[in-house]
Amino acid sequence: MAQRVPFIVAELGADVDPFVLHVYAALAEKERKLISDRTKRALDAAKARGVKLGGDRGNLAEVRAKGMAASAETRAARAEQWAGDVAPMIRELQAGGMSLRQVASELTARGVLTPRGCEWTAAAVKRPVERAA
Fold this sequence. Notes:
Elements: H1 18-48, H2 60-95, H3 100-109, H4 122-132
């Protein structure tokens, strides 16, 4: 604005008065200052309570291990659910005398994708049957 470069504020439209722009800019600056002050006070209060702020709190390995365990548990539960859904279809095709490779081709032809959205392979057909067993 100081260099007289025209710009448009989407919320205000193209025909907004420069005075209104100055008011909005001043309000935005005030809000940033208030947020900064609140954040600084909250961090100071946390420090006063003895909270260690930022970076490594000495438990990084423990936090990482918990996160990995939780992720593995979630993935395993999803795999169990998915295997339970697709295994009966695979068993039905195998009961008709199809090999793993033929089952893979049939599932792909039917538009059934693997959990990762890929086409089927013999190994991918084998896994849910073993998991659901």
